[in-house]
Amino acid sequence: MDRSEPAATCISVNRKPLPRRPAPFQDELLSSWITRLADANYCSVPELCRYLGLAQERPPETLTDLIGVDTDRFCATLRLPPEELDSMLIQRRAEFPIECISWSNFQHCSVCAHKVPRISLRHWRFAWSMHCEACGSELLPVRSKTAAHVHLPTRLRIRAKEGAKRLMLAYRHGNCHAGRRMDLTLQVAGVLAPEIRHGSLFSQNRIDRFKIVAAIDLGMTRPLLATALVLKNDPASETRLRAAFPHKRKLLDRLARLAESLPQHRSREGASLKNHSWMNCAGTAPTPEPEYLEAARRAIDQLGKNAERSDLLNCAAEFLENAR
């Protein structure tokens, strides 16, 4: 009698849905939710990852982490609609010149974290995020206990808010031209203010982080003037720039001429020139001279306080030029 037997026996593992399932919060990271699911089901995160059929023993955060995973069975086990999976993952733009999404938690909302321990929302990873979108509270560094008590000048906050908005729009729209300009801005800022670098976008030092984001706004609005002010007050910075950017000789020559044409500013407190840096333009503003204030008042009187900022600046510049 001819008996035919299969060469291999296939074993199918039937994964049952998890008995306890706390619902995910709006904009919560998949890795954060899986961590909370492990706590709710009294198991470790690696055990839950193995049960879900993941290749690694850590929760996924990007689509790359789900390569080779049966996402239909994965979502069925979690009782998660497949269309909601993408909204819980981080999507990076590899072609963008600046790294704008942190690979780990560098800031958090103390209010949300107190209500839901171990939660992590997706927008907390973004370099441009300053406030929690869930409750509106200001985001704080995860490893700094004194961050909430650090005083940030109002002008620095305003400038950083504008820089964060520009960075967000450029990244979301995939504007690589703006990204390259921002990248150059960060390089220049790093030469003029060595304490900050590209990594300051995710710094645990709030002042450094706000300064580098504020520098982005300066670099996108008035880069030549901001740099020329530094060259005027710190001649040694020109040497550092020429050493860092030897291929930008014509531009640096133009900056040097612009710096020479600017009036020498000396603070009333008698601060040394070394304290005047690129970041001072973004942070604490020096007291303007009376003729500048008068030109600004005349421009506002003529155009109105609701006029475009660029129009006000041009009008004030004309008044100032005529007064000299």
Quick gist of this model?
By secondary structure, the chain is mainly α. It has 13 helices and two strands; from the N terminus they run αααβαβααααααααα.
Explain this structure to me?
By secondary structure, the chain is mainly alpha-helical. It folds into three domains: 30-88, no CATH class; 107-282, no CATH class; 290-323. The protein is built from 13 helices and two strands. Helix 1 (30-40) packs across helix 2 (45-51) and helix 6 (176-192) crosses helix 7 (206-221). The termini are far apart. The relative contact order is 0.08.
- Overall, the morphology is elongated
Strand content: under 5%
Helix content: 40-55%
Taken together, the total number of domains comes to 3
Alpha carbon gap, first and last residue: 114 Å
Number of strands: 2
What is the count of helical runs? Answer: 13
Counting helices, strands and paired strands, the structural category is: mainly alpha
Strand-and-helix sequence, N→C?
A: HHHEHEHHHHHHHHH
Task: State the strand order across the main sheet.
Answer: 1-2
Overall mean pLDDT: 85
What's the Cα radius of gyration? 27 Å
Low-confidence parts = 1-12, 266-276
Major sheet description: 2 strands, antiparallel
